[in-house]
Amino acid sequence: MPLEWIAIVAAAVYGAAAGAVLPRAAYRLSVEPGQPWRDSCPQGHPLGGGVRAVLGPAVCGACVGEGAPHEPYRGGRGALALVGALVCAGLAAAVGVRPELAVWLLCAPLALLLAAVDLAVMRLPDLLTLPLAAGTAALLGLAALLPGAGGSWRRALLGGLVLAGAFFALFVISPRAVAFGDVKLALSVGVALGWYGWPVLFAGAFLGFLLAAGYGVALVLTGRARRSSALAFGPFMVLGAAAGVALGGLAV
C-alpha cells in the first residue's frame, strides 16, 4: 500500500478515535457564560478528576451501577467520531505526507470540540480558543523547520493577525452578528489558512461565511428560525478552515 494511502487510513482511524472521546468534554464545557464547568452527571454523580473526567463517552458509571439504563447523558459520540474520521482523512488526502499534516491532525479534535460546544450553547470558551491559537502557531513554527513543509510560518502568523483584526472590526460594528469568541477563534483559523497563502485565507474565510449564510437561510425557509435569530458561527469557521487548508494542500 502506498505511503499516502497508509497516511489516509491512519488519519481516519485517529480522527474517529479522537472524536469518540470528545462527548464528555463537550458536556462539561457546554454551559452558559458565567457558569462553572460541569463537574457531575445530570443525576449529580461527580465526574472525578484526571483525564477520565474530561475525555471519554458521556456515560456515568455510577448511574449504571445503580441500575439506571446504560444511556449517555449527552449524545453525539457517533457523529463526532464520523466527522473526525472524515475531516482527518480528507486533510491527509489533500495535504499528503508533509510536516504540517501532523499539525492539522493535532488541532482537528480541539476544533471539533469547539464546534460542538458552540452548537450546544453558542459559546467558544477561552479554555479552548486561546490554546488552539497558540498551539497552531507554535506547531507550525516547528513544521516550518522540517524539510518538505508546504507553507510559510511568518505568513501564517500575519494571517492570524489579519483575520482576527477583520473579525474584531465586524464585532465592533455588529456584536450580534460576530461574537468576541469568534474573534479569538479567527486567530487560529487565520494562522492555519495563512500558512498556504493569502488566496487560501480569503477562500477559507469566505467559505465559512457562505456556509453559515446557507444554513441560516435553510433554517428560515423551514420555519426553524427567524431572520433575527442568533446563529453559532464557530462550526462554520471550522468547516471553512478545514476546506481552505485542504485546498491549500492540494495547490502546493
Automatic annotation (TrEMBL):
This protein's UniProt keywords: Membrane, Transmembrane, Transmembrane helix
InterPro entries: Prepilin_IV_endopep_pep, Prepilin_peptidase/N-MTase
Domain Prepilin type IV endopeptidase peptidase: residue ranges: 106-208
The keyword Nucleotidyltransferase is assigned to this record: no
Tree of life domain: Bacteria
Membrane-spanning intervals of the chain: 6-27, 78-95, 101-121, 128-150, 156-173, 204-223, 230-251
Keyword Transmembrane among record annotations: yes
UniProt record similarity statement: Belongs to the peptidase A24 family.
Name used for this protein in its record: A24 family peptidase
Natural source organism: Streptomyces tubbatahanensis
